[in-house]
Amino acid sequence: QVQLVESGGGLVQPGGSLRLSCVISGSIFSFYDMGWYRQAPGKQRELVAVITSGGRTNYADSVKGRFTIGRDSAQRTAYLQMNSLKPDDTAVYYCNLDVGGIGLKVYWGQGTQVTVSS
């Protein structure tokens, strides 16, 4: 059974930085994409960033230039470096693993809260 565990959330002032991590446990016998999503109160879950098994990245327009997604396949981890944080970035952030990268078999972490406030 594949499990994802996120860490690194917390309270930060506007303009600050946080680094989220996602650790994968369990066996995966295929290539997979990794992503970060977020859900703010009263809003739908939205894609923040994704990185394919080949290292290609894609970002939501709202975070381009501020957030960086990365992965270490050997260590079975993914991270999201978040800089220049804004109050609008406040949300629960979820790690996502997509086996095969086609959305047919997807795993989610439990989420980590990020609050940007002065």
Shape: globular
Strand content range: over 45%
User: What portion of residues is helical?
Assistant: under 10%
User: Helix and strand string, N-terminal first?
Assistant: EEEEEEEEEEE
The biggest sheet, with number of strands, parallel, antiparallel or mixed sense and barrel status, is: 7 strands, mixed
Structural class comes to mainly beta
The chain-level mean pLDDT equals 94
**How far apart lie the N and C ends?**
40 Å
Describe this structure in words.
The strands form two sheets. Strands 2, 4, 5, 6, 9, 10 and 11 form a seven-stranded mixed sheet that branches. A four-stranded antiparallel sheet has the order 1-3-8-7, with no helix packed on it. The protein has strands at 3-7, 10-12, 18-25, 32-39, 46-51, 57-59, 67-72, 77-82, 91-99, 106-108, 112-116. Strand 5 and strand 6 form a beta hairpin. 30% of the residues are buried. 0% of the residues lie in helices and 53% in strands. The radius of gyration is 14 Å and the shape is globular. It has no helices and eleven strands. The protein is mostly beta strands. The model has no long low-confidence stretch (mean pLDDT 94).
